[in-house]
Amino acid sequence: MKFKKTLRCCSCSRSGTCHCRQLGLGSPRIEDAGQPEMTLPPGWTEQDMQAVMLAERQGKCRQHLAKDAGEWRGKMTMWMIPGAEPVISDCASTVTTIMDGRYTRVETASEMPGMGPYTGQGVNGFDNVSQKFVSTWIDNHSTGIMTGVGTLSSDGKAIEWEFNFNCPLTKKPTAMRQIETIGGQGTKTLDMFGADPKTGKEFHMMHIELSRQ
Fold this sequence. Notes:
single chain
């Protein structure tokens, strides 16, 4: 087995030229001397391997998600159908970074009047390959996994998500929009919009106001 005899950034070419800072990937990571050197799979080039390694790198978009880490408290207002009386409840959210900061895990708890306790858990990240924010969501009031992609606004203050899931009424795939907006002094809001299963028209389903604790 071959061993490295020099120190260099593990994602850059064997020429020793480091491109991490130019690509906005932060400081290069230096490998320890004496580590076994990976042999390229048949047909692969060093550029192929570099593309794979760049896909794992952390950047500014992950830092944007990581800023939410901590405890949040607030109120959730939900409308079951267009024009219905709102259902209001307290909610709590805990955000932690996982996988060395590559993702954030969001754990939410609330009480749904007439439906009992509500708990949900999501994982958010930024996909270097698609250049999109990505998300999954599960909760104790469903058995499906909701998946979403998001884009950051030009001012960096909001992410607009589009989630996809199977509607229990129509038994068909449907979409939901969520706009997550950063406010001032440790606050943020989440607004969710979905299609009324009876008419197909979009309506404001939920509004959540959160404050950092």
